[in-house]
Every structure is written in structure tokens, then in C-alpha cells.
């Protein structure tokens, strides 16, 4: 999958900013940092998660040229960009339970 073209649900639906529930950074001591996205698909309503290497991350990946964000949506998204310690701890805990991300945690 070419991540640069955008975030997609398993069903193929494009994920846009309005679908994002949680957004944060996963910073590792060694290796690349990741942008973490939790989203609800607007088509199948399923919750999905996505990690994107920070270097490859581009906010335009969540941007649909046909729907411009309103100011309130923009404000909401900017608010989600802030991540506090409790969220970070919760996130690490979550990560430990995701076996499919085993290669992500490895530095090899
Ligand atoms: Zn979907």
C-alpha cells in the first residue's frame, strides 16, 4: 500500500480528517517516530488504526479536495493534536496488545 496516497479503511473507504477520532505521535527512543491515527470509517463505521512514519506523514493525506473543512472542524482537529501524558501511557499499553505491530516495535 502506498501510504502517501492517503489513509484507507479495510473496506477501501478513504479516511478523512472528519473521521479521525484520535491523533498523536508515538515517539521511540531509537528508530523513526510514528504518527498514530485512530479513525471511524464513514462507510462501514468500523474503528481502525494506522501508523505512519513521521517522515512520510503529510496532513494532506487526510484532505479531500472536494470537501473543505469548516473552522469548527479545523479547531476540533487541532485540539486532537495535543496529547497529554495519560493518553501516552494508555497508548503504550494499547501498543503492547497489538501483536500485528511486532515488526514496528523491533528495531531491525
Ligand atoms: Zn470501512
Provide structural commentary.
This protein is an alpha+beta fold. It has helices at residues 71-80, 85-96, 102-105, and strands at 7-8, 14-15, 20-26, 34-40, 47-53. The protein has one domain. The protein is built from 3 helices and 5 strands, in the order βββββααα. The structure holds zinc ion (ZN). Zinc ion binds next to loops. Zinc ion is lined by residues 9, 11, 13, 41, 43-44, 46.
Using brief descriptors, characterize the structure shown.
24% helix, binds zinc ion, alpha+beta, 5 strands, single chain, 3-stranded antiparallel sheet, 108 residues
| Helix percentage | 10-25%
| Rg estimate, integer Å | 14 Å
The shape, in one word, is globular
Strand order of the largest sheet: 3-4-5
Q: Low-confidence spans: pLDDT under 50, at least 5 residues?
A: none
The ligands bound in this entry are:
zinc ion
Order of helices and strands: EEEEEHHH
pLDDT average, as an integer? 76
Largest sheet: 3 strands, antiparallel
What topology does this entry show?
Layout: E1 7-8, E2 14-15, E3 20-26, E4 34-40, E5 47-53, H1 71-80, H2 85-96, H3 102-105
Antiparallel strand pairs: 1-2, 3-4, 4-5
This protein binds zinc ion.
Amino acid at each position: 500500500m502506498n501510504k502517501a496516497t492517503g489513509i484507507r479503511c479495510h473496506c477501501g473507504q478513504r479516511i478523512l480528517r472528519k473521521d479521525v477520532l484520535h491523533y498523536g505521535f508515538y515517539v521511540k527512543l531509537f528508530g523513526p517516530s510514528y504518527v498514530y491515527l485512530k479513525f471511524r470509517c464513514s462507510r462501514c463505521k468500523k474503528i481502525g488504526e494506522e501508523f505512519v512514519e513521521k517522515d512520510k506523514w503529510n496532513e494532506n493525506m487526510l484532505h479531500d479536495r472536494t470537501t473543505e473543512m469548516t473552522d469548527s472542524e479545523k479547531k476540533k482537529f487541532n485540539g486532537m493534536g495535543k496529547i497529554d501524558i495519560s493518553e501516552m501511557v494508555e497508548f503504550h499499553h494499547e501498543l503492547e496488545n497489538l501483536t500485528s505491530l511486532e515488526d514496528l516495535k523491533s528495531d531491525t
